[in-house]
Amino acid sequence: MNATTAVRGGRDSRAATIAMACVGVFVAYLPVTTVSVSLPTIQRSLGASTADLSWVTDAFVLPMAALILTAGVVGDVHGRRKVFQAGLAFCAIGAAIALSADGLDSVEVLWTGQAFAGIGAAALLPATLGLISHAVPDPRERSKYVSLWTASLMGALAVGPMISGVILENAAWRWIFLAPIPASLLTMAAASRYVADSRAAGARRLDWPGQITAAIAITALVYAVIEGGGGSFTETRVLLALTLSALSLAGFIITELRSDSPMLDLKLFRSAAFSATALVAMISFLGLIGFIFVLSLYLGQVQQLGTLDAGYRMLMFTLPAMAVGPVFAQIMHKVSARILITTGLLMATGSLLSLTTIDADTSFTALAWRLIILGIGFGAVFAPMTATAINSVPHQLAGMAAAGSNAFRQVGAALGPALMSALLTTKVSDALPGHLSDAGLSASARDQVTGAVDSGGFGAVHAVDLGADTPRMLHAFSQAFLDGLHLCLTISAAVMLVAAVVAVVLLRRPRPSAPAPSAPARRQEEPALNG
Prior knowledge:
Layout: H1 10-36, H2 39-46, H3 50-78, H4 80-99, H5 101-104, H6 107-135, H7 139-170, H8 180-194, H9 208-230, H10 236-258, H11 272-302, H12 307-330, H13 337-355, H14 364-391, H15 398-438, H16 443-456, H17 470-506, H18 519-525
Protein backbone atom coordinates (compact mmCIF):
# COMPACT_ATOMS: atom_id res chain seq x y z
CA MET A 1 0.00 0.00 0.00
CA ASN A 2 1.20 3.56 -0.71
CA ALA A 3 1.69 6.15 1.99
CA THR A 4 -2.01 6.78 1.70
CA THR A 5 -4.71 4.75 0.06
CA ALA A 6 -6.84 6.41 -2.57
CA VAL A 7 -10.19 7.52 -1.24
CA ARG A 8 -12.83 5.15 -2.49
CA GLY A 9 -16.02 6.65 -3.78
CA GLY A 10 -14.91 10.30 -3.77
CA ARG A 11 -16.97 12.69 -1.65
CA ASP A 12 -19.44 9.98 -0.63
CA SER A 13 -16.60 8.00 0.94
CA ARG A 14 -15.27 11.16 2.54
CA ALA A 15 -18.64 11.89 4.14
CA ALA A 16 -18.87 8.30 5.39
CA THR A 17 -15.34 8.47 6.81
CA ILE A 18 -16.09 11.70 8.68
CA ALA A 19 -19.36 10.27 9.99
CA MET A 20 -17.64 7.09 11.19
CA ALA A 21 -14.90 9.15 12.85
CA CYS A 22 -17.50 11.18 14.74
CA VAL A 23 -19.31 8.01 15.84
CA GLY A 24 -15.98 6.54 16.93
CA VAL A 25 -15.04 9.45 19.21
CA PHE A 26 -18.61 9.44 20.56
CA VAL A 27 -18.22 5.78 21.55
CA ALA A 28 -14.78 6.50 23.00
CA TYR A 29 -15.97 9.24 25.36
CA LEU A 30 -19.39 7.83 26.27
CA PRO A 31 -18.10 6.02 29.41
CA VAL A 32 -16.74 9.26 30.94
CA THR A 33 -20.01 10.78 32.18
CA THR A 34 -22.10 7.60 31.85
CA VAL A 35 -20.03 6.09 34.64
CA SER A 36 -19.41 9.33 36.57
CA VAL A 37 -23.07 9.97 37.42
CA SER A 38 -23.51 6.30 38.32
CA LEU A 39 -20.71 6.25 40.90
CA PRO A 40 -22.99 6.62 43.97
CA THR A 41 -25.13 3.69 42.78
CA ILE A 42 -22.04 1.61 42.00
CA GLN A 43 -20.62 2.42 45.43
CA ARG A 44 -23.74 1.25 47.22
CA SER A 45 -24.06 -1.89 45.10
CA LEU A 46 -20.43 -3.05 45.36
CA GLY A 47 -19.60 -1.60 48.78
CA ALA A 48 -16.72 0.31 47.19
CA SER A 49 -14.57 2.84 49.00
CA THR A 50 -13.95 6.31 47.63
CA ALA A 51 -10.49 5.17 46.50
CA ASP A 52 -12.14 2.22 44.72
CA LEU A 53 -14.41 4.66 42.91
CA SER A 54 -11.51 6.79 41.77
CA TRP A 55 -9.98 3.64 40.26
CA VAL A 56 -13.25 3.05 38.37
CA THR A 57 -12.62 6.36 36.62
CA ASP A 58 -8.84 6.06 36.36
CA ALA A 59 -8.91 2.48 35.08
CA PHE A 60 -10.49 4.01 31.97
CA VAL A 61 -8.42 7.19 31.72
CA LEU A 62 -4.99 5.70 32.46
CA PRO A 63 -4.79 3.52 29.33
CA MET A 64 -5.90 6.52 27.29
CA ALA A 65 -3.07 8.63 28.67
CA ALA A 66 -0.44 5.88 28.46
CA LEU A 67 -1.26 4.43 25.03
CA ILE A 68 -2.59 7.26 22.89
CA LEU A 69 0.79 8.23 21.42
CA THR A 70 1.66 4.64 20.56
CA ALA A 71 -1.79 4.07 19.07
CA GLY A 72 -1.16 7.01 16.77
CA VAL A 73 2.13 5.51 15.59
CA VAL A 74 0.51 2.11 15.02
CA GLY A 75 -2.12 3.79 12.85
CA ASP A 76 0.51 5.69 10.91
CA VAL A 77 2.48 2.51 10.23
CA HIS A 78 -0.16 -0.22 9.87
CA GLY A 79 -3.28 1.71 8.83
CA ARG A 80 -5.67 3.97 10.69
CA ARG A 81 -8.80 2.04 9.75
CA LYS A 82 -7.34 -1.08 11.37
CA VAL A 83 -6.58 0.84 14.56
CA PHE A 84 -10.05 2.41 14.41
CA GLN A 85 -11.70 -1.01 14.22
CA ALA A 86 -9.42 -2.43 16.92
CA GLY A 87 -10.37 0.46 19.18
CA LEU A 88 -14.07 -0.24 18.68
CA ALA A 89 -13.46 -3.93 19.43
CA PHE A 90 -11.73 -3.07 22.72
CA CYS A 91 -14.59 -0.73 23.65
CA ALA A 92 -17.10 -3.52 23.05
CA ILE A 93 -15.03 -6.06 25.02
CA GLY A 94 -14.57 -3.62 27.89
CA ALA A 95 -18.28 -2.87 28.05
CA ALA A 96 -19.10 -6.59 28.05
CA ILE A 97 -16.69 -7.22 30.94
CA ALA A 98 -18.03 -4.27 32.94
CA LEU A 99 -21.56 -5.52 32.27
CA SER A 100 -20.77 -8.65 34.29
CA ALA A 101 -19.30 -6.81 37.32
CA ASP A 102 -22.65 -6.41 39.10
CA GLY A 103 -23.53 -10.07 38.77
CA LEU A 104 -20.08 -11.08 40.04
CA ASP A 105 -20.26 -8.40 42.79
CA SER A 106 -16.70 -7.36 41.97
CA VAL A 107 -15.30 -3.88 41.63
CA GLU A 108 -12.12 -5.46 40.24
CA VAL A 109 -14.09 -6.82 37.26
CA LEU A 110 -15.45 -3.32 36.69
CA TRP A 111 -11.89 -1.94 36.73
CA THR A 112 -10.90 -4.55 34.14
CA GLY A 113 -13.77 -3.64 31.85
CA GLN A 114 -12.98 0.04 32.18
CA ALA A 115 -9.32 -0.64 31.35
CA PHE A 116 -10.24 -2.46 28.12
CA ALA A 117 -12.57 0.39 27.18
CA GLY A 118 -9.77 2.86 27.92
CA ILE A 119 -7.44 0.96 25.57
CA GLY A 120 -10.13 1.22 22.91
CA ALA A 121 -10.52 4.95 23.50
CA ALA A 122 -6.73 5.40 23.26
CA ALA A 123 -6.89 3.82 19.80
CA LEU A 124 -9.97 5.71 18.66
CA LEU A 125 -8.85 9.24 19.47
CA PRO A 126 -5.82 9.37 17.14
CA ALA A 127 -7.39 7.06 14.55
CA THR A 128 -10.53 9.17 14.15
CA LEU A 129 -8.62 12.42 13.70
CA GLY A 130 -6.15 10.67 11.42
CA LEU A 131 -9.00 9.46 9.20
CA ILE A 132 -10.41 12.98 9.00
CA SER A 133 -6.96 14.36 8.20
CA HIS A 134 -6.64 11.95 5.27
CA ALA A 135 -10.20 12.41 4.01
CA VAL A 136 -9.95 16.24 4.12
CA PRO A 137 -6.37 17.17 3.20
CA ASP A 138 -6.96 20.93 3.00
CA PRO A 139 -6.24 22.40 6.49
CA ARG A 140 -8.78 25.22 6.21
CA GLU A 141 -11.60 22.94 5.12
CA ARG A 142 -10.55 20.34 7.67
CA SER A 143 -11.05 22.70 10.61
CA LYS A 144 -14.85 22.62 10.32
CA TYR A 145 -14.84 18.82 10.35
CA VAL A 146 -12.55 18.80 13.38
CA SER A 147 -15.21 21.00 14.99
CA LEU A 148 -17.78 18.28 14.22
CA TRP A 149 -15.42 15.77 15.81
CA THR A 150 -15.18 17.96 18.92
CA ALA A 151 -18.96 18.36 19.01
CA SER A 152 -19.34 14.57 18.87
CA LEU A 153 -16.94 14.21 21.79
CA MET A 154 -18.88 16.78 23.82
CA GLY A 155 -22.13 15.15 22.73
CA ALA A 156 -21.02 11.90 24.34
CA LEU A 157 -20.32 13.77 27.57
CA ALA A 158 -23.77 15.40 27.32
CA VAL A 159 -25.92 12.32 26.68
CA GLY A 160 -23.98 9.99 28.98
CA PRO A 161 -25.73 11.14 32.18
CA MET A 162 -29.14 10.91 30.55
CA ILE A 163 -28.50 7.37 29.31
CA SER A 164 -27.42 6.35 32.80
CA GLY A 165 -30.38 8.12 34.38
CA VAL A 166 -32.99 6.43 32.22
CA ILE A 167 -31.39 3.02 32.72
CA LEU A 168 -30.96 3.33 36.49
CA GLU A 169 -34.55 4.47 36.87
CA ASN A 170 -35.68 1.18 35.35
CA ALA A 171 -32.91 -1.41 35.63
CA ALA A 172 -29.68 -2.42 37.37
CA TRP A 173 -26.61 -0.21 36.93
CA ARG A 174 -24.72 -2.79 34.89
CA TRP A 175 -26.95 -2.04 31.89
CA ILE A 176 -25.30 1.37 31.45
CA PHE A 177 -22.55 -0.59 29.68
CA LEU A 178 -24.89 -2.17 27.12
CA ALA A 179 -25.12 0.67 24.57
CA PRO A 180 -21.41 0.74 23.56
CA ILE A 181 -21.51 -2.92 22.52
CA PRO A 182 -23.91 -2.73 19.52
CA ALA A 183 -22.67 0.78 18.67
CA SER A 184 -19.09 -0.47 18.46
CA LEU A 185 -19.89 -3.62 16.52
CA LEU A 186 -22.12 -1.88 13.98
CA THR A 187 -19.55 0.87 13.41
CA MET A 188 -16.80 -1.75 12.96
CA ALA A 189 -18.84 -3.46 10.27
CA ALA A 190 -19.68 -0.18 8.52
CA ALA A 191 -16.03 0.90 8.57
CA SER A 192 -14.99 -2.19 6.62
CA ARG A 193 -17.23 -1.13 3.76
CA TYR A 194 -17.24 2.66 3.80
CA VAL A 195 -13.99 3.90 5.40
CA ALA A 196 -10.83 4.16 3.30
CA ASP A 197 -7.65 3.07 5.06
CA SER A 198 -4.64 5.38 5.21
CA ARG A 199 -1.10 5.52 6.49
CA ALA A 200 1.33 8.33 7.12
CA ALA A 201 4.30 9.01 4.91
CA GLY A 202 7.76 8.45 6.37
CA ALA A 203 9.52 5.69 8.21
CA ARG A 204 8.13 5.93 11.75
CA ARG A 205 8.31 2.86 13.92
CA LEU A 206 7.09 1.87 17.36
CA ASP A 207 9.05 3.29 20.28
CA TRP A 208 8.69 0.51 22.84
CA PRO A 209 11.20 1.90 25.41
CA GLY A 210 9.35 5.23 25.35
CA GLN A 211 5.96 3.52 25.61
CA ILE A 212 6.96 1.34 28.56
CA THR A 213 8.63 4.10 30.57
CA ALA A 214 5.73 6.52 29.94
CA ALA A 215 3.11 3.96 30.99
CA ILE A 216 5.00 3.09 34.18
CA ALA A 217 5.55 6.75 35.08
CA ILE A 218 1.87 7.70 34.67
CA THR A 219 0.43 4.60 36.35
CA ALA A 220 2.81 4.73 39.31
CA LEU A 221 2.06 8.40 39.92
CA VAL A 222 -1.72 7.94 39.86
CA TYR A 223 -1.43 4.85 42.07
CA ALA A 224 0.62 6.83 44.62
CA VAL A 225 -1.90 9.69 44.69
CA ILE A 226 -4.91 7.39 45.11
CA GLU A 227 -3.38 5.07 47.69
CA GLY A 228 -1.65 7.90 49.53
CA GLY A 229 -4.92 9.79 49.78
CA GLY A 230 -6.75 6.72 51.04
CA GLY A 231 -4.05 5.97 53.62
CA SER A 232 -0.81 7.88 54.08
CA PHE A 233 1.76 9.33 51.72
CA THR A 234 4.50 8.07 54.03
CA GLU A 235 3.60 4.40 53.48
CA THR A 236 6.40 2.38 51.92
CA ARG A 237 4.35 1.31 48.88
CA VAL A 238 3.34 4.90 48.16
CA LEU A 239 6.92 6.17 48.43
CA LEU A 240 8.11 3.34 46.19
CA ALA A 241 5.44 4.22 43.61
CA LEU A 242 6.50 7.88 43.63
CA THR A 243 10.15 6.88 43.25
CA LEU A 244 9.29 4.51 40.41
CA SER A 245 7.30 7.25 38.69
CA ALA A 246 10.20 9.72 38.91
CA LEU A 247 12.75 7.18 37.66
CA SER A 248 10.48 6.13 34.79
CA LEU A 249 9.91 9.75 33.79
CA ALA A 250 13.67 10.32 33.72
CA GLY A 251 14.04 7.14 31.66
CA PHE A 252 11.37 8.36 29.24
CA ILE A 253 13.13 11.68 28.71
CA ILE A 254 16.51 10.02 28.13
CA THR A 255 14.94 7.47 25.76
CA GLU A 256 13.14 10.10 23.70
CA LEU A 257 16.25 12.28 23.42
CA ARG A 258 18.28 9.37 22.09
CA SER A 259 15.65 7.74 19.85
CA ASP A 260 15.76 8.30 16.09
CA SER A 261 11.99 7.64 16.00
CA PRO A 262 10.66 9.05 19.31
CA MET A 263 7.10 8.55 20.45
CA LEU A 264 7.11 12.21 21.55
CA ASP A 265 9.78 14.38 19.98
CA LEU A 266 10.96 16.64 22.80
CA LYS A 267 11.87 19.30 20.24
CA LEU A 268 8.17 20.15 20.33
CA PHE A 269 8.73 21.86 23.66
CA ARG A 270 10.99 24.43 22.02
CA SER A 271 7.72 26.02 20.97
CA ALA A 272 6.38 28.10 23.86
CA ALA A 273 2.88 27.84 22.38
CA PHE A 274 2.98 24.04 22.30
CA SER A 275 4.39 23.89 25.83
CA ALA A 276 1.63 26.23 26.97
CA THR A 277 -1.18 24.20 25.40
CA ALA A 278 0.23 20.95 26.79
CA LEU A 279 0.40 22.41 30.29
CA VAL A 280 -3.02 24.05 29.98
CA ALA A 281 -4.52 20.77 28.75
CA MET A 282 -3.09 18.78 31.65
CA ILE A 283 -3.82 21.32 34.38
CA SER A 284 -7.32 22.27 33.25
CA PHE A 285 -8.48 18.68 32.78
CA LEU A 286 -7.09 17.77 36.19
CA GLY A 287 -9.43 20.38 37.61
CA LEU A 288 -12.36 19.56 35.33
CA ILE A 289 -12.48 15.76 35.62
CA GLY A 290 -11.70 16.00 39.33
CA PHE A 291 -14.63 18.37 39.69
CA ILE A 292 -16.99 16.05 37.80
CA PHE A 293 -15.91 13.21 40.11
CA VAL A 294 -16.75 15.09 43.34
CA LEU A 295 -19.88 16.70 41.86
CA SER A 296 -21.35 13.28 41.06
CA LEU A 297 -20.74 12.17 44.64
CA TYR A 298 -22.28 15.38 46.01
CA LEU A 299 -25.43 14.92 43.94
CA GLY A 300 -25.79 11.30 45.03
CA GLN A 301 -24.51 11.30 48.62
CA VAL A 302 -25.59 14.73 49.88
CA GLN A 303 -28.57 15.74 47.75
CA GLN A 304 -29.69 12.10 47.46
CA LEU A 305 -30.72 12.59 43.83
CA GLY A 306 -31.50 9.79 41.45
CA THR A 307 -29.19 9.35 38.47
CA LEU A 308 -31.63 10.97 36.05
CA ASP A 309 -31.95 14.09 38.20
CA ALA A 310 -28.17 14.19 38.54
CA GLY A 311 -27.94 13.82 34.76
CA TYR A 312 -30.12 16.91 34.21
CA ARG A 313 -27.70 18.91 36.31
CA MET A 314 -24.68 17.56 34.41
CA LEU A 315 -26.35 18.72 31.19
CA MET A 316 -26.07 22.28 32.44
CA PHE A 317 -22.32 21.97 31.93
CA THR A 318 -21.99 19.67 28.93
CA LEU A 319 -24.66 21.18 26.65
CA PRO A 320 -23.27 24.74 26.73
CA ALA A 321 -19.75 23.42 26.17
CA MET A 322 -20.97 21.44 23.14
CA ALA A 323 -23.02 24.35 21.78
CA VAL A 324 -20.39 27.09 22.00
CA GLY A 325 -17.37 25.00 20.97
CA PRO A 326 -18.03 25.25 17.20
CA VAL A 327 -18.78 28.98 17.58
CA PHE A 328 -15.39 29.64 19.15
CA ALA A 329 -13.75 27.41 16.54
CA GLN A 330 -15.16 29.69 13.82
CA ILE A 331 -13.85 32.92 15.39
CA MET A 332 -10.32 31.70 16.09
CA HIS A 333 -9.03 33.49 13.00
CA LYS A 334 -10.44 36.79 14.34
CA VAL A 335 -9.61 36.48 18.05
CA SER A 336 -6.29 35.15 19.27
CA ALA A 337 -6.19 31.76 20.96
CA ARG A 338 -4.47 33.41 23.92
CA ILE A 339 -7.50 35.61 24.58
CA LEU A 340 -10.02 32.81 24.04
CA ILE A 341 -8.23 30.27 26.22
CA THR A 342 -7.45 32.74 29.02
CA THR A 343 -11.01 34.11 29.06
CA GLY A 344 -12.47 30.60 29.13
CA LEU A 345 -10.22 29.53 31.98
CA LEU A 346 -11.05 32.66 34.00
CA MET A 347 -14.75 31.94 33.48
CA ALA A 348 -14.18 28.38 34.72
CA THR A 349 -12.27 29.72 37.74
CA GLY A 350 -15.08 32.09 38.64
CA SER A 351 -17.70 29.38 38.23
CA LEU A 352 -15.84 26.95 40.49
CA LEU A 353 -15.34 29.62 43.16
CA SER A 354 -19.06 30.42 43.05
CA LEU A 355 -19.80 26.73 43.59
CA THR A 356 -18.00 26.83 46.96
CA THR A 357 -21.19 28.39 48.41
CA ILE A 358 -23.48 25.44 47.58
CA ASP A 359 -24.92 23.35 50.39
CA ALA A 360 -27.19 20.35 50.83
CA ASP A 361 -30.30 22.34 49.87
CA THR A 362 -28.95 24.17 46.80
CA SER A 363 -31.67 24.31 44.16
CA PHE A 364 -31.46 23.23 40.54
CA THR A 365 -31.52 26.84 39.37
CA ALA A 366 -28.80 27.98 41.76
CA LEU A 367 -26.56 25.13 40.60
CA ALA A 368 -27.47 25.39 36.92
CA TRP A 369 -26.29 28.94 36.21
CA ARG A 370 -22.90 28.19 37.74
CA LEU A 371 -22.51 25.04 35.63
CA ILE A 372 -23.59 26.90 32.48
CA ILE A 373 -20.78 29.42 33.00
CA LEU A 374 -18.33 26.55 33.52
CA GLY A 375 -19.51 24.90 30.29
CA ILE A 376 -19.18 28.10 28.26
CA GLY A 377 -15.72 28.63 29.70
CA PHE A 378 -14.52 25.20 28.65
CA GLY A 379 -16.18 25.56 25.28
CA ALA A 380 -13.91 28.57 24.73
CA VAL A 381 -10.82 26.56 25.68
CA PHE A 382 -11.15 23.20 23.93
CA ALA A 383 -11.00 23.95 20.19
CA PRO A 384 -8.41 26.80 20.39
CA MET A 385 -6.21 24.65 22.61
CA THR A 386 -6.13 21.79 20.07
CA ALA A 387 -5.67 24.11 17.08
CA THR A 388 -2.83 26.01 18.75
CA ALA A 389 -0.96 22.81 19.57
CA ILE A 390 -1.07 21.83 15.88
CA ASN A 391 -0.33 25.25 14.40
CA SER A 392 2.56 26.11 16.72
CA VAL A 393 4.99 23.53 15.28
CA PRO A 394 6.39 22.74 11.82
CA HIS A 395 4.00 21.01 9.42
CA GLN A 396 5.70 17.61 9.66
CA LEU A 397 5.29 17.56 13.46
CA ALA A 398 1.61 18.57 13.51
CA GLY A 399 0.32 15.04 14.07
CA MET A 400 2.69 14.35 16.94
CA ALA A 401 1.86 17.74 18.48
CA ALA A 402 -1.87 16.97 18.48
CA ALA A 403 -1.24 13.52 19.96
CA GLY A 404 1.07 14.96 22.60
CA SER A 405 -1.46 17.59 23.63
CA ASN A 406 -4.15 14.92 23.91
CA ALA A 407 -1.84 12.70 25.97
CA PHE A 408 -1.17 15.54 28.41
CA ARG A 409 -4.91 16.14 28.64
CA GLN A 410 -5.52 12.50 29.58
CA VAL A 411 -2.74 12.57 32.19
CA GLY A 412 -4.56 15.49 33.82
CA ALA A 413 -7.86 13.63 33.52
CA ALA A 414 -6.29 10.63 35.32
CA LEU A 415 -4.77 12.73 38.10
CA GLY A 416 -7.99 14.72 38.68
CA PRO A 417 -10.12 11.98 40.31
CA ALA A 418 -7.05 10.62 42.11
CA LEU A 419 -6.22 13.99 43.66
CA MET A 420 -9.82 14.97 44.46
CA SER A 421 -10.54 11.55 45.95
CA ALA A 422 -7.53 11.95 48.24
CA LEU A 423 -8.52 15.48 49.28
CA LEU A 424 -12.19 14.61 49.76
CA THR A 425 -11.51 11.45 51.77
CA THR A 426 -8.98 13.16 54.04
CA LYS A 427 -11.13 16.24 54.69
CA VAL A 428 -14.35 14.28 55.34
CA SER A 429 -12.54 11.87 57.68
CA ASP A 430 -11.06 14.79 59.62
CA ALA A 431 -14.29 16.80 59.79
CA LEU A 432 -16.82 14.02 60.43
CA PRO A 433 -16.10 13.36 64.15
CA GLY A 434 -16.52 17.07 64.97
CA HIS A 435 -19.82 17.36 63.11
CA LEU A 436 -21.12 14.17 64.75
CA SER A 437 -20.18 15.59 68.14
CA ASP A 438 -21.88 18.92 67.34
CA ALA A 439 -25.00 16.92 66.42
CA GLY A 440 -25.07 15.52 69.97
CA LEU A 441 -24.30 11.89 69.12
CA SER A 442 -22.71 9.65 71.71
CA ALA A 443 -19.11 8.49 71.51
CA SER A 444 -20.21 4.96 70.60
CA ALA A 445 -22.47 6.27 67.81
CA ARG A 446 -19.66 8.46 66.51
CA ASP A 447 -17.31 5.48 66.44
CA GLN A 448 -19.92 3.39 64.61
CA VAL A 449 -20.36 6.00 61.90
CA THR A 450 -16.70 6.81 61.39
CA GLY A 451 -15.85 3.11 61.35
CA ALA A 452 -18.46 2.48 58.67
CA VAL A 453 -17.10 5.30 56.52
CA ASP A 454 -13.49 4.21 56.99
CA SER A 455 -14.22 0.61 56.01
CA GLY A 456 -16.99 1.02 53.44
CA GLY A 457 -16.64 4.50 51.99
CA PHE A 458 -19.14 7.34 51.97
CA GLY A 459 -21.99 5.15 50.75
CA ALA A 460 -21.78 3.03 53.91
CA VAL A 461 -23.09 5.86 56.09
CA HIS A 462 -26.59 5.40 54.65
CA ALA A 463 -26.66 1.81 55.90
CA VAL A 464 -25.98 2.85 59.50
CA ASP A 465 -29.16 2.75 61.60
CA LEU A 466 -29.05 4.89 64.74
CA GLY A 467 -32.78 4.94 65.25
CA ALA A 468 -34.05 8.39 66.18
CA ASP A 469 -30.50 9.77 65.82
CA THR A 470 -30.23 8.76 62.15
CA PRO A 471 -31.43 12.12 60.69
CA ARG A 472 -28.91 14.02 62.85
CA MET A 473 -26.18 11.59 61.80
CA LEU A 474 -26.96 12.05 58.11
CA HIS A 475 -26.99 15.84 58.50
CA ALA A 476 -23.59 15.71 60.22
CA PHE A 477 -22.23 13.55 57.39
CA SER A 478 -23.58 16.00 54.79
CA GLN A 479 -21.83 18.86 56.57
CA ALA A 480 -18.55 16.96 56.64
CA PHE A 481 -18.92 16.08 52.97
CA LEU A 482 -19.60 19.74 52.12
CA ASP A 483 -16.38 20.69 53.91
CA GLY A 484 -14.53 18.27 51.66
CA LEU A 485 -16.44 19.39 48.56
CA HIS A 486 -15.68 23.06 49.17
CA LEU A 487 -11.99 22.24 49.58
CA CYS A 488 -11.98 20.32 46.28
CA LEU A 489 -13.78 23.15 44.51
CA THR A 490 -11.30 25.68 45.85
CA ILE A 491 -8.39 23.55 44.66
CA SER A 492 -10.05 23.07 41.25
CA ALA A 493 -10.53 26.84 40.94
CA ALA A 494 -6.88 27.42 41.88
CA VAL A 495 -5.83 24.87 39.26
CA MET A 496 -7.85 26.69 36.58
CA LEU A 497 -6.30 30.00 37.61
CA VAL A 498 -2.82 28.51 37.28
CA ALA A 499 -3.74 27.28 33.79
CA ALA A 500 -4.92 30.81 32.90
CA VAL A 501 -1.62 32.27 34.09
CA VAL A 502 0.27 29.71 31.98
CA ALA A 503 -1.79 30.74 28.95
CA VAL A 504 -1.12 34.45 29.51
CA VAL A 505 2.60 34.00 30.03
CA LEU A 506 3.45 31.40 27.38
CA LEU A 507 0.87 31.72 24.63
CA ARG A 508 1.91 33.89 21.76
CA ARG A 509 0.69 33.95 18.19
CA PRO A 510 2.48 30.89 16.75
CA ARG A 511 4.88 31.28 13.88
CA PRO A 512 3.45 29.94 10.64
CA SER A 513 4.15 26.30 9.95
CA ALA A 514 6.14 25.23 6.94
CA PRO A 515 4.28 25.92 3.70
CA ALA A 516 1.79 23.24 2.79
CA PRO A 517 2.81 21.08 -0.15
CA SER A 518 1.06 21.33 -3.46
CA ALA A 519 -2.30 19.60 -3.73
CA PRO A 520 -1.09 16.44 -5.48
CA ALA A 521 1.79 15.93 -3.06
CA ARG A 522 -0.15 16.75 0.07
CA ARG A 523 -2.16 13.57 -0.14
CA GLN A 524 1.11 11.65 0.18
CA GLU A 525 2.72 13.76 2.89
CA GLU A 526 -0.18 14.64 5.15
CA PRO A 527 0.91 13.97 8.76
CA ALA A 528 -1.29 12.02 11.09
CA LEU A 529 -3.57 14.31 13.06
CA ASN A 530 -3.39 12.03 16.08
CA GLY A 531 -4.78 13.58 19.18
